[in-house]
């Protein structure tokens, strides 16, 4: 290990210990103050370790990254075991097992042995000789998901979207009133609402034209495609702005944690 | 047998799921719920397979002392510590190992690991994107053409909406932008995506697409 690395590591360890003790002492009125102090300091250390990636990839970032992989895998496995296998499977198989795992008993269904067998076959992937058996549960999962997706996407992403696009453009609209008698430029007025319908209809059509690559984008088709790009650019800009604000709100959350919960600089 | 039977199984399960949608009978809905449970249960076994793979890969790196093997020790430490906290509890003063009841889920250390390790790392990683996205924006948002200007303008309006100093009008404009042109383009994308998903699902069910089954 280089001399510089040793100095940096020692500095971080000393700072961590000082922070732990100071934080623990500041929480003296609470239950387990030094445990709370340790956890808050450790969370602050991990936050700063991840932020250090802004400089470049470094051992502190790698430490946080690898700890996250291990701990989150165990977290989801523990949760999955209790809430999926024990809660959904055990009560269906036997009362004895349900009592053993202290979960409420349910009406038995021996059909539930089949997913157990398929699950065990999935584990055969670990075996060199019987690895091919793991294709059976995989086939069930893939076929099931494909069937569900076929109907689900056809209904929600195609039929419903198309039917929502084909709305009246210049007539009475959802009880707001007649277009010419109730003309209003207000945001909730008849004109703006109808304009919205027209923009949505034209926007969807032009957007689809842009994604249609089987015909050359020239002439009227090309114009529609260009309008499609404009609409898509507005969407990408809006989505970008929305994402930025979401990330900034997370950043504010982390900074609040550092300055308020850890350092206590903000009351 | 090794290769053909799985494709028959894919066809049968896929076809059944399409068929049951068009038969809104109590029994068909029961079978649908039933198979949904099956999928969740098989998913539980898949998770165990994933954990085993993680342990094996990390152990292998440590054993052979490959580059950066020390980080695999941290991965395994995090994994086993979290598992340990998930099956133990000492809240009532006496230490207990609970491999058959969900007591471990209420172990304060299990909850603390989630609150003070997983949440800070995850939230900070996502917030890091704010910096990278800002530098990407600097390169992408130069108003050199009409479409780049539209992108810039839409992003600025949506971002300004969150700032109270710009008044209520910006909120109105941003809402219109999100609910009208944004909706139109999203709908065009979703329609394309939907058709693509339907075509892929059909190819899988009919056995035209077979890549997911791997070689051998």
Structural description of this entry:
Chain A is mainly α and 267 residues long. Among the domains of chain A are: 1-56, no CATH class; 165-262, no CATH class. Chain A is 72% helix and 0% strand. Chain A has eight helices and no strands. Helices cover 75% and strands 2% of the residues of chain B. In chain B, helix 2 packs across helix 3 (69-87), helix 5 packs across helix 6 and helix 6 (168-179) packs parallel to helix 7. Chain B has 216 residues and is an all-alpha fold. In chain B, strands 1-2 form a two-stranded antiparallel sheet. In chain B, a hairpin with a 6-residue loop joins strand 1 (88-89) and strand 2. The chains are: A mainly alpha (267), B mainly alpha (216).
Helical stretch tally of chain A: 8
Give the SSE string of chain B. Answer: HHHEEHHHH
- Any idea what the shape of chain A is? extended
Estimate the helix proportion of chain B, in percent.
over 70%
| Strand order in the sheet with the most strands of chain B | 1-2
Average pLDDT of chain B works out at 86
**Which percent range describes the beta-strand content of chain B?**
under 5%
Instruction: Determine Rg of chain B (CA atoms, Å).
Output: 26 Å
Q: Tally of extended strands of chain B?
A: 2
How far apart the termini of chain A lie comes to 41 Å
Silhouette of chain B: extended
Counting helices, strands and paired strands, the structural category of chain A is: mainly alpha
Order of helices and strands of chain A: HHHHHHHH
Low-confidence stretches of chain B: none
Please count the helical segments of chain B: 7
Main beta-sheet annotation of chain A? none
Overall pLDDT of chain A: 87
Q: Strand content of the residues of chain A, in percent?
A: under 5%
Tell me the total number of β-strands of chain A: 0
Low-confidence regions of chain A = none
What class would the helix/strand composition of chain B place it in? mainly alpha
